[in-house]
Amino acid sequence: MAVNKFEQGRIPVEFMQLTNDQQLMLNGECGEAARQSMEILAALGKIYGAKDMVSITSAQVAGVSYKTIGEAGLEYLQDFAAAGACVRIPTFLNPAGMDREQWQKLKVPAAFAKKQLEILSAFSKMGISSTCTCTPYLVGIRPKLGEHIAWSESSAISFANSVLGARTNREGGPSALAAAVCGCTPNYGLHLDENRIANLLVKVETPLKGTSDFGAMGAFVGEAAKGKTPAFVGVKAASEDRLKSLGASMAAWGSTAIYFMKGVTPEWNVVKGAEELTFGAAELAATREKMGGEGKPDIIAIGCPHASLQEIEEVAARVRGKKLQTKLWVCTARQTLEAADNAGFTREIEQAGGNVVADTCMVVCPLEEMGMAHAACNSGKAAKYLTNMFKKKVVYGDVEDIICE
Fold it and tell me: What is the separation, in whole angstroms, between the first and last Cα of the chain?
C-alpha cells in the first residue's frame, strides 16, 4: 500500500502548552497539511525548549527560486498544496529566480522559467501573496515594535528585528511556511526579551561615506561576531537603506539576526561588560580590499537587498544621458518598480541600456546559465554570494564607483 509522504508519527507535546485550536491542528482535525505543519512547529519547540506558541501577524517564505530548491523542492510544494495547505495569515515570498513579466526580455532560459512558474503557482494555491521581495518593509509590510512574525530571508529578519523592533527568529523556508499555515510559531529565541541583548560592543571610529562602507562594516562585524549580538556606537546617523545594507551584510558574512545602534534603532540593550570591537579606518580599508576585485564585469548588479525607490532614483541620475557598455540590473520589488515607472526612473535607466528587474535578484537568478561570470555590486551580501557563485571577487563599491561608463 502506498504511504502518504505526509504521514508522520504523532509528536508528544507534554513539554509545550498548546491552545485548543493548535491541538486540533496537531491531531489532524484541520487537515493533513495543517497537521504536518504543527508537527514541524512542535518539533522545533521541543528542540529549543519553547513552552508555548506565539501568534504571528505575517510570514515570509524563502525557498522560492527554482535555482535554490530544484525539482525536489518543487515536488514538495506541489504535494503540500495538493494536501490542502492554506495560510491563515498574510504571507509573502522571498525573491524568485526571475522577473515573472520580463523573463523572456532578460533571456532567462525557457526551461528554468517553466519550473519557476510552477513553483509560484503552487504557492498561490496555498493563498500566498505573489509579492516576491526580500524588502517587504519597503512595500507596506512593516510590523510594529514588539510584533511577532515568522520571516525567513536573512536580511529581512535583520531589518525587522533591528530597525523595526519586531520579533522573528531566523526561520527556514519550511518552518516559515508551517507557521503561515498554523498562524503561530514556537515562542523561543528572539521572540523573548532575554535573548534580545547585545554582548558585543562595536566602536565605530571612522566615517562611513556610503552604502558600500556600511556593507563592508557588516562583513567585518559579521565574521568577527561568531554568534554574538552586536551593538554599534559612534554612528551619528544612518538611513534605512544603509541600515538595510549593514544588516544584510552581517547576516551573509556571519549569522547575525539582530543588532542595535545607539540613537538609531528602537531598542538598545547591552550586557554589562560586553566584549568590545573597534572598527576604524584600517579595518574598513582591509575589509574593502578583501571584498572587492578588479576587471571588467559582465553585469552591474544593484538591489541586494531589493532597491528602494530612492536607490533607483540614484541609479537613474547616474546613468542619465549615457549609454552603458555593461549590462545593468537594478533589482527591486514589483510595487517599487511600478513607482519607479511612474516617476520616470525606469525609462531613464532603460534608455541608458539598463533594466529595472522585479521579483528576483542577482543571487537567486541563474546568471551562470545566462553567460555571466563576473559582477560588480554595491552590496556586502551580494559580494559574498556572487564571489562564491562565480569563484571570482566582485568589483565592489558605491553606485558612482561601479557605474563609471
Answer: 65
- Cβ pair 304, 248 in contact under 8 A: yes
> How far is 396 from 405, CA to CA, in rounded Å?
15
Amino acid, single-letter form, for residue 96: A
CA distances from 246 to 160, 197, 242, 250, 347 (A): 13, 18, 6, 6, 30
Domains of the chain with CATH codes: 20-191 (3.30.499.10), 197-288 (no CATH), 292-402 (3.30.499.10)
d(CA 291, CA 383): 7
pLDDT tens, position by position, 12-37: 567 899 999 999 999 999 999 999 99
Report the distance separating Cα 281 and Cα 266, nearest Å. Answer: 27
- Rounded to whole angstroms, how far apart are CA atoms 221 and 224? 5
pTM listed for this prediction: 0.94
Cα gap 373→387, rounded to integer Å: 10
| Closest to 89 (Cα-Cα) out of 40, 151, 42 | 151
* Cα angle 246-248-254, degrees, rounded to a multiple of 5: 95
Question: Which residues in the chain come in under a pLDDT of 50?
Answer: 1-9
